[in-house]
Amino acid sequence: MNVVFIAPPAAGKGTQATLLRDNYNFYHISTGDVLREIAETNTPLGCEIKALIDNGKLVSDELMAKLLKEKIGSLGNVEGIIFDGFPRTLEQAHMLDEILNEPSDRYIDVIKKGLISCGYDFSEEEYKKYFKNGEKC
Q1: Quick one: how far is CA 86 from the chain centroid?
Q2: Strands 3-5 and 80-84
Q3: pLDDT (tens digit, 9 = 90+) per residue, 5-28?
Q4: What is the C-alpha separation between 122 and 41, in angstroms, rounded?
Q5: Is the entire prediction scored with pTM above 0.70?
Q6: In this predicted model, what pLDDT tens digit does every residue of 102-111 receive, in sequence order?
Q7: Which of 2, 48, 58, 76 is deepest in the core (most CB within 10 A)?
Q8: Per-residue 3-state assignment (H helix, E strand, C coil) for the chain
Q9: How far apart are CA 102 and CA 137, in angstroms?
């Protein structure tokens, strides 16, 4: 199962990701962390991303999808992945669909139902209820 957190900075995504990671063997992928990690490398790609970040520009959807695909491919045995910062648009949801080979409507469903929404703080019992009952996240 994969989960998408969509919320502004400081809304609690990291707190919720920590609960899932620690209690359910999920892996948390923050696109900001991925980009900062690569920008610190002294590679052509690292320099390109650092320049984009330093100039306040966005990384293209295609490049971000490629970086996420590489990151996902490097993961070991995890129960699921928490995506923080991607997808932000319907086009990005379709890209994630292709990467994971899963229907992107699952991610749109998260947004519509508000299961993970701006600042909403799930208790541990609520997590267990949603995941145990097979709620599609």
Answers
A1: 5
A2: parallel
A3: 877 778 888 888 888 888 888 889
A4: 36
A5: no
A6: 544 444 444 4
A7: 2
A8: CCEEECCCCCCCHHHHHHHHHHHHCEEEEEHHHHHHHHHCCCCHHHHHHHHHHHCCCCCCHHHHHHHHHHHHHCCCCCCEEEEECCCCCHHHHHHHHHHHCCCCHHHHHHHHHCCCCCCCCCCHHHHHHHHHCCCCC
A9: 12
